[in-house]
Amino acid sequence: MKPRLPHPWRFLKNRFSNWLQSRLPRTDHLTLTQRNVYILPTGAGLMLGVTLMVLLVASINYQLNLGYLLTFLLAGCALVAMHVAHATLRGLTIHLIAPDACHARATSQFSISLQNDRKRPRHGLALTVEDLGHWVDTDVAAQASTTLQLAFTPPRRGLQHLPTLTVQTLFPLGTFRVWALWRPATQVLVYPAPEAHPPPLPGHSADDSSRQNGVRYQQGEPDGLRPYRRGDSLKTIVWKKAAKTGELVSRDQAALQSHTLWLEPQHTQLNQLEAQLSRLCAWVLQAEQQGLRYGLRMSGQEIAPDSGPAHQQRCLQALALA
Fold first, then answer.
1. pLDDT value at residue 46
2. For residue 269, with 0-12 CB atoms within 10 Å meaning exposed, 13-18 middle and 19 or more buried, which class applies?
3. Which residues partner with 158 through β-bridges?
4. Average pLDDT, the chain
5. Residues 88/178, Cβ–Cβ less than 8 Å
6. What pTM was computed for the model?
7. What domains lie within the chain, and their CATH numbers?
8. CA 136/CA 37 separation, integer angstroms
9. Which of 96, 194, 218, 247 could form a disulfide with 282 if both were Cys (CB 3.0 to 4.6 A apart)?
10. Which H or E run contains 233?
């Protein structure tokens, strides 16, 4: 767990981070160059520098030839490590794979593709979502690519930008930290968080839903179905039943219309907008699970009654952008 900074230092760090991010353009495809890769010594690197200074002073005072040799040998290794660390990130290409929509307060996962075009592998790469502190380590082989998964929790519903990402390396000696910041341009659609224990659907009980699923029969056919009549549209014929039994039956549009469920904010009996959207989201999921035909009316927008994954997605998107 990262130690908490004192309040003044945390304030200055946030101000510097905001200033730095404002200078970074949003893009889903980033190639790391000398202009966007930063390098600073780590704590171990600073200690190595202090040690080299002590060795140099001691060698000068006592005229130690072996001390000079050790000092300049270690200094040369540190300089080589600095160039190797910087070259590990320089030239790396990063590409974002667009994430799927998710619900608020749920984890959103997205994929990052790392492309290495040079003839040497890149070792010790690590990526993280800013301020989370959970690093995902990987290596990229020569002239190859790799894909890794990152995750974050969207703070609210609607279209949300992905947080700033950090890619870094401490390779090879850990004496220098080389890193780059990346602000993806892609936005993730965040649906409202469904209410944990919503009340029953408006105007429907468990008995109503069971009847709509075909438990109640009328004239030998499930409710909403009737024998085929000449002139019926081909779209209304239940072809699955025809394939199994050879009998043609059609959907009764009048019966289906009478069973149509409309979801509206006033049905929630709640005053706060976010609470209304949370309950409507839970009702949409519940109606889709029960196989009901349902529509959505809110804020002057009306989604015609239907069912299926595409219809559910349209309703959830309307709730997310309300």
1. 97
2. exposed
3. 190
4. 86
5. yes
6. 0.76
7. 23-191 (2.60.40.10), 206-223+259-320 (no CATH)
8. 19
9. 194
10. none
